[in-house]
């Protein structure tokens, strides 16, 4: 049997590959595969690193100070840590031009999810209403992925919007601030449920509360933002390492896949990739699986179609979750000491389901070990006063990351500019005309919810992130029951090129407000299991 | 790049932000950052604010307060943010940056009140001191460029 060629080692690619390997298939994975340095001093806490590293500034701000947030920055509250710089390292062959969209893309081993925050939120029936399958069909794969990667969570109020699947581990130990928020919610639950259709509960996160295989449970070093030193926090490179233990798996790093070639019957016969030195490599394949992420997979498809047919296609319906960052201060936590040695990403999630509208989801991160200089400069004081105030409010600071759903709309598309060398991916995105009103209303709603929980969220600090910032791209070649040249079957197979599969977000016909990564993994597992 | 001036800035800013002198490591990193390339040409008034702020922590507070309100992207504000970032990453000083004074809600409200009052007072003083300088510099550069045009 011909090997399956998989392009990309992100969340979708590695779970597809592992499932196929477990079924006895041979898999060749082509990947650029940039990697970062190994974690330094794995047993040190975050403050231990500041104390013990020979050059802590280089570790936290970067050798060239890239992670320093100076005045006039983009409005983000933390920069990407230097240890994760490789995740966004560019590759010359991939050029893009965009309007209304600020995309991020990755050529790292493990892909963009190497910088994710671990939220694992299964889509429910209503989220999947535009998909050609329902929750029942996806649930076993959610459970399978949960067992593979380790997801903590519990059954609470959020169970009505985050279906409870098998394989959940007991939750991580709560940090004090998150515990205070949960306690406030318990006291105002009926009011919040009735007034705002607001549900609050424990987040589902891909971090281990107990050992799983060779991975150890979270040791609470407080280093999550800087890269978990013990692999208790899951990233796709963990599964990539698992795949590499199979003799039937061949991982070929350093290769940028540009296009595929087709035979006379319009089936994929080979994949063309470029090495860093410019040499061309061509791999014969029986089945090609694109898992390079929606933008890169779309580019490979567009390039291949242009070379085969001479046509520049437009792939309509590109989507992303709009996100709003809302910093807040919890009055009950003011002036309290806090423990930096705790899990750092979100431990609380919120769902708001307005009547006759789709759910909006939010993740609540209690800011503990992020760098404080971006926050202090946002305070309405001089920096000296800001530092004194920050000491008192640090343990009370939090950040709500609000996610909005998106839908495929024809005016949003990706195409290719063939007048440039190399050909450029072009992205056009315009939000719906009703979006500003919706954002304003949602901001007001969340400020009221936070106020009820005893928190203040100053309106001037709310930051509407540009489209593309959430990195949940999807929808350019959607799964559909209707055959067509620009859509796929429910197993991600292109309707006309039947040995071409898309197992990433490319095929999602809708994008709910939830972090999409867990569903990407489950869907890729489903396709590998059912179609191969 | 004047390393003596940089060191003077670094010492003044550290004392202003955390009440302590910077370590040799922090001074080295502060210098290193400026050598790395954040050496954009300063306007006259920005240059003046930097020089004034390097004199002593009190002057750093005055210049910072003025800059925070009226010149958010000025060199002095950027340098102070850099200094804070270095202090929060470096051994020993990170503990001072993050030292909670306690006192709960009431203590924080009192601190906020005191901070706001001091900020307002320093802002007034800084406006009185720096606005005439800024205006004078703006006027002299206008008349300078008019002279240059004449010639």
Q: How would you characterize this protein structure?
A:
The complex is a heterodimer of chains A (about 525) and B (about 150). Chain A is an alpha/beta fold and about 525 residues long. Chain A contains eleven helices and 23 strands. In chain A, the strands form six sheets. In chain A, strands 6, 13, 14, 15, 16, 20 and 21 form a seven-stranded antiparallel beta sheet that branches. In chain A, strands 7-2-1-11-22 form a five-stranded parallel beta sheet, covered by helices on one side. Chain A has a four-stranded mixed beta sheet with strand order 3-19-18-12. In chain A, a hairpin with a 6-residue loop joins β18 (about 415) and β19. The termini of chain A are close together. Helices cover about 80% and strands about 0% of the residues of chain B. Chain B is an all-alpha fold. Chain B has one domain. Chain B is built from seven helices and no strands. The interface of A and B includes residues 56 and 385 of A.
Which features does this protein show?
heterodimer; A: 532 residues; alpha/beta; seven-stranded antiparallel β-sheet; five-stranded parallel β-sheet; 19% strand; globular; B: 151 residues; mainly alpha; 7 helices; 0% strand; flat
C-alpha Rg of chain A, in Å? 23 Å
Which chains share the greatest interface?
Answer: A-B, 40 and 48 residues
How far from one another are the termini of chain A? 11 Å
Number of helical regions of chain B: 7
Strand-pairing-aware structural class of chain A = alpha/beta
- Spatial shape of chain B: flat
**What is the count of structural domains of chain B?**
1
